[in-house]
Design a protein that fits this description.
This protein is of the alpha/beta class. The chain has one domain: TIM Barrel. The protein is 36% helix and 13% strand. The protein contains ten helices and eight strands. Strands 1-2-3-4-5-6-7-8 form an eight-stranded parallel β-barrel, surrounded by five helices. Helix 3 links the parallel strand 3 and strand 4. The radius of gyration is 17 Å and the shape is globular. The structure holds phosphoenolpyruvate (PEP) and manganese (II) ion (MN). The site of phosphoenolpyruvate has 8 residues, from loops.
Length: 264
Amino acid sequence: MKNTPELRTWLNDFNLEHPLVIAGPCSAETEEQVLKIAHELKNSDVSIFRAGIWKPRTRPGGFEGVGEIGLKWLKKAKEETGMLIATEVATANHVKLALEYDVDVLWIGARTTANPFAVQEIADALAGTDKIVLIKNPVNPDLALWLGGIERLYNADIKKLGVIHRGFSSYEKTKYRNIPEWQIPIELQNRFPDLPLICDPSHITGNRDMVQKVSQQALNLNYDGLIIETHIDPDNAWSDAAQQVTPDHLKNMFVHLKMRKKED
Ligand code: PEP
Ligand code: MN
């Protein structure tokens, strides 16, 4: 994979005075929930509205996402608020459906990045697309596997690429849900300075009280953006309740976060 400034060009469509902000619920739950959150985030620092439609859950039997109907709600959120929309894709069929509903940003989740067959299938389904494609780090602290996933997408001629750092799973008990292991994304950034790097403090911390601190750490390291889970009623969210913040909490965070601009 070449190191090319072309990789950064899609960021120019956003306000570069700010980090790129992606926010919205962990999961789309109901049409009303999706639209309420989207309207609260309209006219804020948020450029891209996220919601998971297909949810990779650790154990079976729980809420696994609303599926295709959620794409209709996301499309409506885009029409009503003007924000771009983002969702997670894990199979070629997810990609096909997301493209049918004109989803702007497709991200590959941490469990999927750990599976090269799945990433290749997604890359093939997206080949040549001009959609923005973001790839999270794999669940395990393996830079080569993350780079391999990026290469599969790059080789499929996907130009609007970026990466999301969401921390790494460990059996060790720490204050984090997923340990940041900052040296791994920093090494990635050193090797591919032109690849936009976004931090996911929600999945790193697993705890809404720590989200601002980790966001600031990422901005201090010159990350290009943040993806932050945001819900109107976080405690009653159907997934990842402990880490989601309210729209007001998110807006307040942006009053306090100190932005650091790229020195180029
Ligand atoms: C998510 O973004 O809700 C998600 C499932 O994240 P991850 O793939 O990082 O666990
Ligand atoms: Mn989540």
